[in-house]
Amino acid sequence: MLADGRRLSSVSAVLRDPEGRPSAVLCVNLDRTPLEQAAAVLSAFGVPSVARPEPLFEQDWTERVQHTIGSYVREHGRPVERLTRTDRLAVLGRLDEAGVFSVRRAAPVVAGALKVSRSTLYGLLAELRASGTKHDEGPTP
């Protein structure tokens, strides 16, 4: 990672002379920012162009889980697997405010959607509730 927060990928290769002796090192550094920006643009194509009809989904808590997590992922431009602890706390805050955890057996569904263990989910939820603060926004990409 660079000092300004951009992600960098580096590859180095040893170049050899005709006798097989090392003669030089070739290093290639790639700023991944353009690739990550392109990924964010491409993921925006999956955003619905028409708002979903809320009355049809207001009682479906599993749909609310998927919608909340999907909205957060699209807003921040990174997949669920790359969400940070702060991101997960923000998502859990949104889900908690929506009353998802008042539904019996919601925790395993949320843990599966966030791709974390139930133990991790319960720990994050305890941290969220103990802090007593809202975690509405995570870091921006």
Written account of the structure:
The chain has 141 residues and is α+β, with helices and mostly antiparallel strands. It has six helices and two strands. Strands 1-2 form a two-stranded antiparallel sheet. It is elongated.
Which characteristics define this entry?
141 residues; alpha+beta; 6 helices; elongated
Concise synopsis of the structure shown:
This protein is α+β, with helices and mostly antiparallel strands and 141 residues long. The protein has helices spanning 33-44, 54-57, 61-76, 85-97, 106-114, 118-131, and strands at 8-16, 22-31. The protein is built from six helices and two strands.
Strand order of the largest sheet: 1-2
Dominant shape: elongated
What is the mean predicted local confidence, pLDDT? 84
What's the alpha carbon Rg, rounded to whole Å? 21 Å
Q: How much of the polypeptide forms β-strand, as a percent range?
A: 5-15%
The level of helicity is: 40-55%
How would you spell out the order of helices and strands?
EEHHHHHH
What's the main sheet like?
Answer: 2 strands, antiparallel
